[in-house]
Design goal:
The chain is of the alpha/beta class. The chain has one domain (about 10-95, about 125-219): Rossmann fold, CATH 3.40.50.10300. It has helices at about 35-45, 70-80, 125-130, 150-160, 200-219; strands at about 10-15, 20, 25, 50-55, 65-70, 85-90, 95-100, 120, 140-145, 165-170, 180-190, 190-200. The strands form 3 sheets. The chain has an 8-stranded mixed β-sheet with strand order 5-4-1-6-9-10-11-12, sandwiched between helices. It has a two-stranded antiparallel sheet with strand order 2-3. Strands 7-8 form a two-stranded antiparallel sheet. The longest helix is centred in the last third of the chain and has 18 residues, at about 200-219. Bound molecules: cytidine-5'-monophosphate. Cytidine-5'-monophosphate binds near residues 94, 126 and 144. GO terms for molecular function: catalytic activity. Pfam families: DFP (PF04127).
Length: about 220
Amino acid sequence: MSTLHGRRVLVSAGPTFEDIDPVRFIGNRSSGRMGFAIAEAAIARGAQVTLVAGPVHLSTPSGVQRIDVRSAAQMHEAVMSALPADVYIGTAAVADFTPQHVAGHKLKKVPGQDTLVLELVKTRDILADVAGAETRPRLVVGFAAETCDVETYARGKLAAKRIDMIAANRVGIAGCGFESDDNTLDVLWTDGQRRLGPDNKRAVAEGLLDLIEERMTNA
Ligand code: C5P
């Protein structure tokens, strides 16, 4: 029987949208497909899955409890409220910065003004807060989308955010990462690493869950 059978698995997925005014926002290219594939694969292993989803166009895998959010602040609130869990997998591409003020009316062009400065403030780091929570899940897994020096940045995040495992994927290249059906992940933990893929996201999700099960058994 799977180690995940009966375990509570909490997954975050998709982008966040940070509103600038009633019609504009700052978003990113995350489709949410990796997180949804992980949620579906975890259900198939008998886990109880809660999926906190940013704005995506995907249907909910059968058996998954889905909570829809829009902003990084809402995602933080939803994820922290969904604890405790045995495993947290943070696949969401959470905005690192959000506008300090949301304009109540659509921002207008001003004649003679050729630049616009938006003041952004840092969002709260959900992954680090989950890893530091009193009800810390047994295994906290993060994702790191990078365009270069993938492994170096990923190892840095593993340590800085005090998480157990990080899945790094190279983005910005064709057939990989955001907006793609396929993915390649370099999964790193303190004393090891493994490459998953290139393969479709469901196969990569199965590989990641295998590694999570191994860590839960051995750690
Ligand atoms: O530091 P960076 O944003 O590159 O780290 C990516 C990882 O951190 C992802 O797992 C993402 O879900 C998580 N993250 C988060 N909250 C933030 C920013 C990133 O949980 N505010």
